[in-house]
Structure formats: structure tokens, C-alpha cells
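Subject: for your reference before the review

Hello V.,

The reviewers asked for a structural picture of the protein, and I figured it would be easier to keep everything in one thread rather than splitting it across files. Below is the amino acid sequence we used in the manuscript, unchanged from the supplementary table.
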Amino acid sequence: MIADFVEHALRVAYVHRRDVHNLRDTDWAAPGVYVLLTDDGSGSVYVGKAVWLRARLLQHRAKPKLPWRRAVILKRDTSHGFNSAEIGYLEGRLSAELEATQDLTVIKGKADQDLTLPPHMLLSLDAILPSMLAAVRLAGLDVRRASDADDGHPATTSTSVRTNTFIPGTVADLLASGLLQAGAELHLNQGGKVGTGKVTTSGEIIVNGVAYSSPSKASAVALGLRASNGWETWHVGSLSGPKLATLRSQLPPPVEEA
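And here is what came back from the structure prediction:
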């Protein structure tokens, strides 16, 4: 089966292991990323990349890395397609996203996440990940993870006593207002632990290859903690840069409904 994800010009093939040879060389002798799926209930998947997708899948059929039965194969449906650096980055991002789910065991290929690409290219590749995850979901894989929705961190007083005050505003709101730029690096340092993140065009924060919609969830992951107030711990640009909370305080007040 072939599916097209038009928004990001992705073409996806869903193929059984026994049918890999039926992939047309004219279509699939191309660079891209693939996921090998098992059907033994183990939840094991293999994520890889290849400059020649069809040839690589034939190699996996002859010398399997795991007892896979189906494959999800993703390439760019454009005249130029992906290059080797792009598929290296996407392989790492897709591996990290799948590994962050609760029920999957990811066997990775060479996930080098080529970071030599210019920042604007990384931003465009990050934007493709939702479509790639949707493609994997269509194969029957549960790619959901625990919700990290951030609905406004309660305000705290100078003595750190938590109140029930709701503070409106999201990272996406900061982007829309021009207070924050997509691609901005975020830094934190708490209790001797340091971490970094990157802001996506959709207002998520990428930490260790995984995108989080909640600054607090991203902060907790970066610090290895159960919870953290990311609005207060994330600094923009450097550890001496402004906090996300400081930028959020500059957002215009929400318009009250009549």
C-alpha cells in the first residue's frame, strides 16, 4: 500500500517482508527512512535509514536484525528527495520519538542525527516528524505517550508557596508575538544538572530528540526529574538569558469574551 502525506510531500510504502522485491526500483531506489515491525507481541521495532531504500530492505530480508514481518518506508515525494545528512537527522529524531513511547523497544541503526545541517533545515525537518509518526501509526503501531499538555503553570510567591493562579500563554504564543524565535536554544541549570532544548516552529521544545508541548515536561526530562517548572528553569539563548516566564509576562492580556 502507498500513502501520500501531502503537507510535507512524504510518500510512504507499507510492505510485507515477503513482498519487498515487488517495490519498483524506479520509485524506491531513493534515500529515506524506514521502520521494521514485528508481529510477535514484543513491541520491538528497528529504525534505519538508507540512500537506496529498496536495496537496504532486501538486505534486511536476507539478514534480519530482528524477526520483522512488515516495513514502513518513507521518502520525499519530490524531484530532489532527501539527502544523506537529512535522513541521518530524521532517523535519529524518529528513533527518539518512538523510544519515548511506553510500549516500544527501539533497535536503532546508525542514528547520527547529522547536526551539520543549517538551523533552517533542521527546523523544516523537525516539522516533518508529526507526519512521519502518523505514517507509523497507520501501520497499527501505538505511538502515543503520556500527555505532556501544559495548561499554564500555577504562579508561585517569593517563598515558593504554590497558588492556584492560572497564567495564560504558551510557547506557541511567544512565537506568534515575536517574543521568541523558532530554532532558539534553551538552557537550564538546576541542582548541578544542565540541559538544553530547541524551540520548533510549532512551539514545542526538543530535548534529546523528542518534542514536548510542555516546557515543564521538557525541563523535567532534561533534568531527569519527575517534575520541574520549565517556565522558570528554561533560559533563552544562554543561562544568563531571559526566562520563558519573563517572556510570557510580556504577552498582551487575553481578550475577555463579551
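For the response letter, the relevant points are probably these. The chain has two domains: 2-138, 147-258. The mean pLDDT is 85.

Happy to draft the paragraph if you're swamped.

O.
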